Amino acid sequence: MLRLGFPVVGVADPGRAAAFWTAALHLRVSDEWSSPSWRTLTGPGGDRVLGLMRSASPPEPRPRLHLDLLVDTTDEQDAEVARLLSLGATRPAWDGYPAEPDFVVLADPDGNVFCVVDLSRAPSSGSVGGDA
């Protein structure tokens, strides 16, 4: 039976990306499911949750698919955005915010955009995938 796996993000440097995403999401790199051009990140229970694949193509500025990282409050969103920025995330230029967004658009060290969504204010319209 066909099953949905886990998201895979194309990156220029799997080691650098693994360092960012393991710190960002409190994951670990799986020794069993990794290679020089691939990293599998696992959660606390050992489940595979994110793949990082070496890619020569540049990140899309307005991707049709992206990661949403979820928090429960605005204070938590502010704290997590600050923490992610300290880990190497950046704030890309983003003109797609609605009037009162529940999300903040960030980019990982490779330039892949993702959102930090405050569930206490969700859903807003116009997220990364909404206007692409």
Structure summary, number of beta strands: 7
Dominant shape: globular
Give the count of structural domains.
2
How far apart lie the N and C ends? Answer: 32 Å
Order of helices and strands: EHEEEEHEE
**pLDDT averaged residue by residue:** 91
Which class do the helix and strand fractions yield? alpha/beta
Task: Name the CATH superfamily classification of the largest domain.
Answer: 2,3-Dihydroxybiphenyl 1,2-Dioxygenase, domain 1
Largest sheet: 4 strands, mixed
Cα gyration radius (Å): 15 Å
| CATH topology type of the largest domain | 2,3-Dihydroxybiphenyl 1,2-Dioxygenase, domain 1
- The CATH architecture of the largest domain comes to Roll
Please provide a written account of the structure:
InterPro entries: Glyas_Bleomycin-R_OHBP_Dase, Glyoxalase_6, VOC_core. This is VOC family protein. It holds the Pfam family Glyoxalase_6. The protein is α/β, with parallel strands linked by helices. It folds into two domains: 8-54, Signal recognition particle alu RNA binding heterodimer, srp9/1; 67-118, 2,3-Dihydroxybiphenyl 1,2-Dioxygenase, domain 1 (Roll), CATH 3.10.180. The protein has helices spanning 14-25, 74-87; strands at residues 8-11, 28-29, 38-42, 48-54, 67-71, 103-107, 113-118. The chain has a four-stranded mixed beta sheet with strand order 1-4-3-2, covered by helices on one side. Strands 5-7-6 form a three-stranded mixed beta sheet, covered by helices on one side. A hairpin with a 5-residue loop joins strand 6 (103-107) and strand 7. The termini are far apart.
